[in-house]
Specification:
The protein is an all-alpha fold. It has one domain. It is built from seven helices and two strands. Strand 1 and strand 2 form a beta hairpin. The chain is elongated. Keywords: Cell membrane, Membrane, Olfaction, Receptor, Sensory transduction, Transducer, Transmembrane, Transmembrane helix. It is a multi-pass membrane protein. One of its GO terms (molecular function) is odorant binding. One of its GO terms (biological process) is signal transduction.
């Protein structure tokens, strides 16, 4: 779909719109991977120098810091078991972070691509009265609008369960981190600077990902509403036959279009702020 839409671009203005949307998606992807890179630094690089990010030790600690602490069926304090285990855990962490961010970034890429297509559609509707073959262009706009709505429905069906589990996951994490902050102040613990930065980066990472989902949903809602208002502002300037065709787009555009979390609640900035 994405390749097909890029091939069908008809002029420089439409191409510039798509490029701006693609650049916005690239900025978000870069920012997301930078945050994940900071996490990799604290989880992989610092433990390799003997600096652990864990605050509480237990009986499973082997004595030498690992990226992920667990129970080992072999002695990891000896070489080369320690090095091999450390490298394998580092690879697992990197793959997990790339997979986690990759799904989110792909969602952002799809949403911004659709928003670019909706921008182009809005411009065509706005300039409809300036075209000689307005009837043909209007039919093309209606067809394209229905196609984009079907794509949004596919994205919604694909991501709604994922978003629901992520929001539940975020709620649980925020509860634990809130408890951790309270205990730090109550106990008067002297937390090191590296631990403080790691703790803050983790909270910012969770907060940013949750904000990203809601921002994408809000952008999609706003862009779909622009199509409705663009069609609404033109219906009285057209003849009766074109108005009937435009009515199809207006009726469909009046229905709210948004991403949901498990089809329970919409993923918008209002949800994020509530």
């Amino acid at each position: 779909m994405i390749v097909e839409d890029w091939v069908k671009l008809k002029n420089a203005e439409e191409r510039n719109i798509m490029i701006r949307r693609a650049q916005s998606a690239r900025i978000i992807i870069t920012f997301a991977y930078c945050i994940m890179g900071i996490g990799c630094f604290f989880l992989i690089v610092l433990p390799s120098f003997g600096i652990s990010m864990r605050d509480t030790t237990n009986i499973t600690d082997p004595g030498r810091p690992m990226p992920l602490q667990t129970y080992y069926i072999y002695d990891v304090t000896k070489s080369p078991q320690y090095e091999l285990t450390f490298i394998s855990q580092s690879i697992y962490i990197i793959i997990a972070m790339m997979s986690y961010s990759g799904i989110d970034n792909f969602l952002g890429l799809l949403v911004f691509h659709i928003c670019g297509q909706l921008d182009i559609l809005k411009n065509r509707l706005t300039n409809l009265d300036k075209c000689k073959n307005s009837h043909k262009i209007l039919n093309s706009c209606i067809t394209r609008h229905r196609r984009l709505l079907r794509v949004i429905d596919i994205i919604e069906d694909t991501y709604n369960v994922i978003l629901l589990f992520l929001f539940v996951y975020f709620a649980i994490l925020f509860a634990f981190y809130g408890f951790r902050i309270i205990t730090l102040f109550d106990e008067g613990n002297n937390i090191s600077f590296s631990h403080l930065v790691y703790f803050a980066s983790t909270v910012i990472n969770i907060f940013a990902h949750m904000c990203l989902y809601c921002a994408l949903g809000e952008i999609l809602v706003a862009q779909c509403n622009k199509i409705y208002y663009a069609a609404y502002s033109k219906w009285y300037t057209m003849n009766s036959k074109e108005t009937q065709n435009l009515l199809i787009l207006m009726i469909r555009g009046s229905k709210p279009v948004y991403l949901t979390a498990g089809k329970v609640f919409p993923v918008t900035m209002a949800t994020f702020c509530s």
